[in-house]
């Protein structure tokens, strides 16, 4: 019964039978009991105290050296985000087996220590598909999508069996990079190898096609899915919203409710985005209010940020700032960022300065906040304040991260950094940029340097914008 509930949506019920064992005069918990109790605790990851108590009982009954229990504990603490405990348990293993090694790789990856995970992964004498998936997933979740795709190619070259988790992580990496060709390849691979289209895989495909801008394929996958859950609907609606189909997003929300699918907090992020894109301010506010009034959902930071964006895009800047000031939670970076974006669109320098200052206060390491604040002062020719912003950055140890873009050509990713000349075809690119700039000037185009007026000494931006040349114009020129 404990095992059954540990694998069910109701893991807390395992404790009823566990307590009966403890109260029994005949039975006592064994290694199997604790193995499944650890699994239950892992599922109840919002209550780590329960996991601590089970770990204490494991030590009390002398099963702390059982390899299966140890692997389970590593996985449990990984879900709790307590990497130190994972490492502590792993250090007690005399001869770590494949299961415990894989659990440790996954724990390091989930905790953001991807380099440690990769070192352990590379040292594993044997690696099964679960180990490969753990490493690929770690790269994808930490935003290192290119490494995830590279490792996936190596996995295929070594004829390791691909599982559902692998494909979901790879599709997530494709979504992050906008790597449509590679995402298509995964889809074809699934069809050729008769991989069953589960809800999770279908949702990942819908998300990938949506974020890569191919809504036709997203619609096709969505309509072919026999089973959909709330995350499938939410992902599809989000895809419609981010691709500019705000009205269709709201229509899909109505259809989802007619199908009897209960919306969750993720759904409402998509709905609010759809209203924002479509300019449906009143309807967006109604949906926001319905979260708590009708569905019993507590709005999170993302929802408040969406409402600020909803007001801001429509030009209701005063309503946006009033909403921020009336929020029941402390205004966060996403809310001020949404206001800042709206102010930049509608040219409100006064509120832009306020939003930028708030962002700098909240995220002292956010280089973009400093850059935007400096640009606001530069546009007003307030060079002393520009200099002060640079001093603030220097004192805080913040450096301007060069702009970066990634494009996919024939299934290969090409990354470009500002001022970077290392691309193997840089010479051809430079010639083509010069030709584009020449053609732009023929009908009278003149570049506006203001959006990139911050740097100055590092990014050599002005004449690059105007002429496509490498003649720098730096910060001192603007002063």
Automatic annotation (TrEMBL):
GO terms under biological process: RNA modification
Coiled coil: none
GO terms, molecular function: RNA binding
Pfam families cross-referenced by the UniProt entry: E_motif (PF20431), PPR (PF01535), PPR_2 (PF13041)
Keyword vocabulary terms for this entry: Repeat
Sequence ranges of the PPR repeats: 128-162, 229-263
Entry-linked PANTHER family: PENTATRICOPEPTIDE REPEAT-CONTAINING PROTEIN, TETRATRICOPEPTIDE-LIKE HELICAL DOMAIN SUPERFAMILY
UniProt-listed NCBIfam families: PPR (TIGR00756)
Protein name, entry field: DYW domain-containing protein
């Amino acid at each position: 019964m404990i095992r059954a509930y540990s694998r069910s949506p109701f893991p807390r019920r395992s404790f009823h039978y566990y307590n009966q064992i403890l109260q029994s005069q005949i039975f006592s918990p064994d290694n199997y009991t604790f193995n499944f109790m650890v699994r239950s605790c892992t599922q109840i990851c919002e209550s780590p105290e329960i996991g601590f108590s089970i770990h204490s009982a494991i030590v009390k009954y002398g099963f702390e050296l059982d390899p299966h229990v140890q692997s389970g504990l590593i996985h449990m603490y990984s879900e709790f985000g307590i990497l130190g405990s994972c490492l502590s348990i792993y250090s007690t293993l005399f001869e770590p087996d494949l299961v415990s090694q894989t659990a440790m790789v996954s724990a390091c990856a989930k905790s953001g220590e991807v380099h440690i995970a990769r070192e352990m992964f590379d040292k594993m004498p044997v690696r099964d598909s679960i180990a490969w998936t753990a490493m690929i997933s770690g790269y994808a979740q930490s935003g290192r999508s290119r490494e995830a795709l590279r490792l996936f190619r190596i996995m295929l070259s070594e004829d390791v069996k691909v599982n559902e988790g692998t494909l979901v992580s790879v599709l997530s990496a494709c979504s992050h990079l906008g790597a449509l060709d590679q995402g298509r390849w995964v889809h074809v691979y699934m069809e050729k190898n008769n991989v069953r289209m589960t809800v999770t895989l279908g949702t990942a495909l819908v998300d990938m096609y949506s974020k890569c801008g191919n809504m036709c394929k997203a619609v096709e996958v969505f309509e072919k899915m026999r089973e959909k859950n709330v995350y499938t609907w939410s992902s599809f609606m989000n895809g419609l919203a981010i691709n500019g189909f705000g009205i269709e997003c709201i229509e899909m929300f109505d259809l989802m409710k007619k199908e009897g699918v209960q919306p969750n907090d993720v759904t409402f992020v998509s709905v609010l985005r759809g209203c924002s894109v479509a300019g449906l301010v009143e309807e967006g506010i109604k949906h926001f209010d319905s979260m708590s009034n009708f569905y019993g959902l507590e709005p999170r930071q993302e929802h408040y940020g969406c409402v600020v964006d909803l007001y801001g895009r429509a030009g209701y800047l005063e309503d946006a700032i009033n909403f921020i000031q009336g929020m029941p939670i402390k205004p966060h970076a996403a809310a001020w960022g949404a206001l800042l974006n709206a102010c930049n669109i509608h040219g409100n320098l006064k509120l832009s300065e306020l939003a930028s200052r708030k962002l700098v206060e909240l995220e002292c390491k956010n280089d973009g906040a400093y850059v935007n604040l400096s640009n606001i002062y530069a546009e007003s020719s307030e060079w002393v304040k520009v200099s002060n912003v640079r001093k603030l950055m220097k004192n805080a140890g913040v450096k301007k991260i060069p702009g970066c873009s990634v494009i996919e050509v024939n299934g290969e990713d090409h990354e470009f950094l500002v001022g970077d000349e290392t691309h193997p075809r840089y010479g051809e690119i430079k010639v083509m940029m010069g030709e584009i700039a020449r053609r732009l000037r023929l009908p009278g185009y003149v570049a506006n340097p203001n959006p990139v007026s911050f740097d100055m000494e590092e990014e050599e931006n002005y004449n690059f914008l105007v002429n496509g040349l490498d003649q720098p114009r730096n910060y001192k020129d603007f002063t």
